Amino acid sequence: MIKVLKPGFYSTIQDLGRIGFQQFGVPYSGVMDRKAATVANALLGNDESDAVIEMTMTGATFQFSTNTFIAISGADMSPKLNNQAIQCNKMVAVKFNDVLSFGKLNTGFRCYLAVLGGFNTEIVMNSKSMYKNITEQSVIKKDDDLMIFKDSITNISHHASIRFNTDYINSNIIEVHRGPEFYFLSENQQKALFATDFSISKDNNRMAYQMEETFQNNLKPIITSAVLPGTVQLTPSGKLIVLMRDCQTTGGYPRVLQLTESAINIIAQKFTGNTIRFKLIPQN
């Protein structure tokens, strides 16, 4: 079991998401940066779909009531075990009563904590991902007791030699495909999409990232249609909105671009004021 001493700014239990319920209006949810989360699990020999803790901007503080192993990946939040610095992207042994804490945010925005065997928490619609009105809690809270699989320590296999390139966290190139309404844009508008540096506005969260700059828009709204994480919508006011893991399942704004999976990982590590540039993937 792990006790939450401090929850951090916005920390949740997430896995790879809630698949197969979108026709009921249920978001996919799941980890914002799949690359980082799956690496953290791989370091421990976990299944890639095992639940992890996603921490945003500031880390949480945890006390362990059992011996286990952990791995931390994604944003560098200066992790410490019993006030001693530990490395990210490495398997770390944790003992009874050890305290894991985090400090200065050095790179990125979202950090992932994996524990050997994964978190044994509430499952709703085949997923442990927290989401308001779907799961009992939408974030972890102070004094929460988070269950883990106690017997998993006897089955550990060492994967600590995994090499993880974290350069993507600092990249600002967001690779995209054309969206369904891309060709409704004029040729000049299409060129401007890929020639402009867009900055992340203060309106960014697990549901969507809104860009600060206004993009010329004379398109009419569309009939409400399906959207996905990574869909880029163009609002009537000319704002670009990049939908993220907790996004709605349908929308009425033109869908001008669609991010690749790797691009979603990159933008998930951005915060207010960071700049990005869209890069179109050529069609075959």
UniProtKB/TrEMBL annotation:
Carboxyltransferase domain location: 23-284
Gene3D superfamilies, A to Z: Cyclophilin-like (2.40.100.10)
* One of the Pfam families matching this protein, by short name: CT_A_B
The reply to whether Membrane figures as a keyword in the UniProt entry is: no
Tell me yes or no: is Nucleotide-binding among this UniProt entry's keywords. Answer: yes
Q: Which PANTHER family match?
A: 5-OXOPROLINASE SUBUNIT C
Name the keywords, alphabetized. Answer: ATP-binding, Hydrolase, Nucleotide-binding
Q: What is this protein called?
A: Biotin-dependent carboxyltransferase family protein
